[in-house]
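Subject: Sanity check before I submit

Could someone independently write out the structure tokens for this chain? I want to compare against mine line by line before I put it in a report. The sequence has 328 residues.
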Amino acid sequence: MHFAYPPRKSSHPPAYPARGLSRSLSYNQRRQLKIGAIILCSLVFLILVLSRLFSNGTERIPPATPEVVIVTLIDEENMSKDYIAKVQDNRNEYAARHGYATFFPTVSSYPSINDSPRTWSLVPALRHALTLHPHSTYFFALSPHALIMNPTLNLRTHILAPNRLESLMLRDKPVVPPDSVIKTFGNLKGDRIDLVLTQDGEGLCPGSFVLKNGEWAQFLLDTWFDPLYRSYNFQKAEAHALEHIVQWHPTILTKLALIPQRTLNTYNTNIASRGGADALYQDGDFVVRLVGCDTDAARSCEGEFEAMRVKLGARKMREGLKGGGQVG
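---
Independent answer below. Compare away.
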């Protein structure tokens, strides 16, 4: 019996893609994707590097950021509401004139001082101010028992412009008078200064000073507020602690400028040990402090503030300044 032969295969089989070719295309696609991803990452990295270079490593400052923030710590337990309001008015009027900001923290806001003197609250208050105003350049710390007596003076032109500051700096001056072996440096430049202070006959005067914002300012405040220093029971609390760290921490001394007392810190009372007649307020001076009024039971901070406020009002009247005569 003969069986039929199976049909012969065609000499022209249908075109099927070769398995090797399919794998080759898949490999090439993956390779292209990897190359594309590398190029994309490289471009992103390049953009980030260029943005850092052209921004000089500084964060963009929002519009209307005040250059200066005036910080006055309010002791609500020992100051009347009327007294507090007058202190705030004095700062706010000056700030509005120059485009500055004000900050009035209260002593009770900083319970971390524990059993330390209440004046220690100044240090965390400044740290708080830096946090609230991270883009502002300068922080002007001014005692509540003080008045800005010449509101026409701009802090930058009066003190802080580098050339002006260099002309004011007291060089090779004992940090703590009269004969401290630690002296201010003689070769510092105005644009390298981050802390501007005065001194009187007894020592440094943290009742009126200017601090420049930055990492160094944070380092200073953290060092100053160290629990170890607060436990030392310095006679003048934070003032003597500041003298200590300025003298024994070169990192702090290299950023310090002492300037003449009258520039930033005159007094309304003649105290021989604190400068005597040379430190007394004169018409036209920038700031007057009622130094010692809060520690002398025979004196009244509020009464002395009002007396100086009347003088300020009279000066405004003479010069036709806005707000003149509003002293009642």
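---
OP: Matches mine. For the report I'm noting this point. The chain has eleven helices and nine strands.
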